[in-house]
Structures are given as C-alpha cells and as structure tokens.
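Follow-up to my earlier ticket, as requested here are the two runs.
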Amino acid sequence: MSQKIVFAATGGPEVLKLENVEIGRPGPGEVHLRHSAIGVNFIDTYQRSGLYPLPLPSGLGSEAAGVVLAVGEGVDWLRAGDRVAYAGGPLGAYSSERLIAAEHLLKLPAGIADETAACAMLQGMTVEYLVQRTFPVQPGQTVLWHAAAGGVGQIALQWLSAMGVQVIATVGSAAKGEIARRLGAAHVINYSEEDVAARVREITGGKGVPVVFDSVGKSTFEASLDSLSPRGMMVTFGNASGPVPAVSPLELTKRGSLFLTRPKLGDYIASRAELEASSAALFRRLEDGTIKLAPSHRYPLAEAAQAHRDLEARKTTGSVILLP
C-alpha cells in the first residue's frame, strides 16, 4: 500500500488530498520504486492551479529519489536495492511508492545523498540546459538571474561563479540578498526596492547584459527586456508572478534586435542520451563540490498543501522536499 497525493479539481493548495493506493507488480520495462525524498517545484503549483492544464484526477510531482524494490521484465541494468533518482516522466512523485518506467531513472553515485538528489535533479538539469545549451554562457560574461535565492537560482549562482561568470542577482529581500552574495553573486539587486533595469545599466556601464534568465514572469518581464544589450537573449522559464504579457516582435526590434525564448526541460532531455549527459554534468559538480546543495525546507508528504502555500507565498529559499 502506498500513500499518494492526488487532486480531482484545480485550485488552491487545499485541493491536494492524501490517499492510500495499491501498488501492483512492475510490468515490462517498469520498476517498483520506494521514495526516500521528493522534490517540490514551482511547476507543481502551476499544474495544481490549472495554469498548466492536466487531465483530472491526477497525481503530482515529477522529481524524487529512492530505492528500487523490484524490476519488471526487460529491465536488466537495475536491480532491487539500487539507489536511483529521476526528474520527468509521468506525474506521481508525491507518493511513498510508485511504478515508473525504468527509462526515466538514473543511478545515483554513492557520494550524492537522496535528499540532495531529490532537490537537485529537476533544478540542476534546468540550470545545465539553460547555461550550457539555451545560451552557452562564457567565462568573463555578465548575466542577469532573477529570483537568485530560489532553488534554481542557488544552483545557478554556484555553477556560473565556478565558470568565472559575473552574475547580477535579483532578490526580494535583504535576507535573500545575503544568500545570493554567499553563493557567488557579483552584484545583488532587491527588485522590491530598486529599478532593476537602471541598476543593470549602471553596473554594466550602460551596455546591458547579453542574457537574462527569468523565472519570475509577469512582474519582471519588462525590466528584463530593458536590461539586455543589443542582440541579447531573454530566457523566460517560469511564471512565479504570473504569465508574461503578449509581446509584439517589433518590441524586440526596438530594444536592439533581441531574442526571446521560452524553453522547458523536457525538450532538452527528450532522448536517453541527452538525459544521461545532462545528469552527468550535474553529478560531476555535486561530487566535486562545485555545487553544495541540501534542502532548505522539509515537509511530511501529508503536508504537501502547506509546502505549496509556503512556496507560493515566497516564504521559502532554496529547495523544498517532501518526506514519505
């Protein structure tokens, strides 16, 4: 018997319910997995609220770490007792146990703890594809990263600073600013008190930055565009403050022939080879200490709704996990 968070209607965190479900035997290509730690991400709140529509009723969660209990026919590279993690595949990570296709799983190196993996997979591979493939950032460049004290932001700050990249980090409070500085931000802007674009121009001597990474969305979109240098790239990859407004292509022209993209992780780990390459890049940085990561907030699985409330209210910094 497994415990699982489900929701039958979209809405606030109160729609999340804990249910007991039977777990059958794994079918061909499947694995019976017992979760030890489960990642909580902003995309989960978008799916729960209906911003990203799902067929209902539905489970939730796309990231976790755990131990293999049994394998189905044809799974010859995993066995009971193996430690694994994943980010992606069918929703359902908010559960104590589940069946999942083996193709989504990655063996965990011995030096990476389950809790670290549960909060690193989705966010860490997101950083990998953003800074190495969406816009391949080069040493010596200066970039703007919004919500830098959040889970993705904290990984990005460490990753980029280790590359010799100057990061202008935006945060919503003085306390979050201290976190950003500690993790390697060269400059910190409190967007609740300062004009972001004006400060970016001041820091860069009027030039602007070649790329902006923005997961905040609606409230920072205009400032992000105004912070870019000619032919710069605006990478919008989240909607924490709501969806960005419609934009005319002519606005990109007027601001200096800008590029605008809205990528998602699934398109960058669509093949097994891409998944393995992205996770390997992340695992190397976790193992060599380039990225130091542990969950900042832990909630019992039964308190998933409270985790969502705190995440949406910006009460959390860093990564959030559920413990079955």
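Run two:
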Amino acid sequence: MIVARGLTRRFGTLIAVNNLNLCVKSGEIYGFLGPNGAGKTTTIKMLTGVMEPNSGEIEIAGLKMRESGMEIKRLIAVVPDEPKMYDNLKGIEFAMFIIDIYRLPKRETLRRLYEIAEIFDIDYLGKYISDYSHGMKQKLMVSIALMRNPSVIFLDEPTVGLDAASARKLKLMLREMANGGASIFFTTHVLEVAEKMCDRIGIIDNGKLIAEGTLNELRSQSGKMEYSLEELFLDMTEKGENLYSNESGE
C-alpha cells in the first residue's frame, strides 16, 4: 500500500532523506522512528505529496505519485504534528468543508464523525476553532481524518497533546482499522506506544533507514534479545552511549 524506492530529498547541501526504501502492506501498522531532525517529517511530506523528492519513486495503493497525485490524496488521510485549521470556523463547519472538498456522502460521513467524536469525548463541534486547545484540535483533526474511512493513514506524532484516555482510544481505533485492511504509517517519540502498537518498525537516522523489522527482528539484528524498543533505539542511533553499560556507571 505504501512503497518508496530510492527516495531522496535535499535542502541545499543537507541531505534530509537519503535513498530511502520502504514497503508497508495492507493491514499493517508501521512505526517510523528517529531522533529529531532524522528525516521523519520530510519523509511523510513526500509520501503524502506535499513535497516532491529530488529523486526516487513513490507508490500508494498501486498508484504512482508523479502520475496520480490527486487521486492518491483522495485515498489517504494525514494527521500532521501541528494541526492546521481555520480559526474562524466552528469544528462542524471545518468538518463540512472537508466533506465538500473530498465530495464525500454527507449523511454517512457525518454519522461516522459523530460516532468518533463520542468516542473521543468531543463536545465542542459547535465552538470556534480559535477557542480550542492544542489537544482539542488534535482530537478533531484525528476524527476528521478517520471519518473518511481512508485506506492509508499517515500520522505525525498523533498522540502529542492527547490525554492518556484519548491516546488509548486512538490506538484501539487504529488497530481496528488496520484489522479491516487499512495501512497505518506513523511517527512517534513515545517508544512505548510504538512497541505496543506496531507490526513493524523502521528507524531512520541522518536521513538513512538504519534498521527495519518486527521488534524481535530488531532484537535479532542487534544481538540483544533482552532489550526493549527504547534500548534498541538508543543503541542503534548512538544516543545512549554508556546508558546500559554497567551498574558502576563507567
């Protein structure tokens, strides 16, 4: 459902993403992890058609991004790390705007929106977005993305700003959608969430995919079967120098 071949993006002399190859299957939750500045958000922007790569190919649901960009955007849903909404609209007005843009069946889509809003305890659809907190915006953005019942979902730090109960509900909903055949691609700094949710994990550092696989496969690759995902991540990205060395702290 998500394929990237040789994906590269430069900003001047900086290579933000370097010859990246990915393949995410239908029904799979794929966690894309990396330190700050590793290339996660740039990768999502390319995979969702927001930013063009300097080189490489992208296919979503069998469609090539260069040839079928608009059709792909109708198939996917994106939840960015910073929700971008129109502050002068009410929540329900913004939802109706999205319904009109994507030419979705109004009654069926609104029914799904209200069902999701009830799950997330969203009781502010009639209020102006300018009055929303970051967490309120995040929950609404997630709800609007999921109301479309997309076949591919991209989420950039989706649990940031969510309370513990909402984050858990989101995890359960994403698993249910994956079980129904949707592909979920998300980034997170909360490694415990990735460890519990993901079918497979990719770790990017300095623009390169340095490891990929299930948690057990990552453990096998590192030769450290007892490590948690957090320990593996720190070890592979060299962010945990001496963190797990010995009890004397040497």
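The only thing I checked on run two: The beta strands are 2-11, 14-24, 29-33, 55-60, 63-64, 76-79, 152-156, 183-187, 200-205, 208-213. Let me know what else you need.
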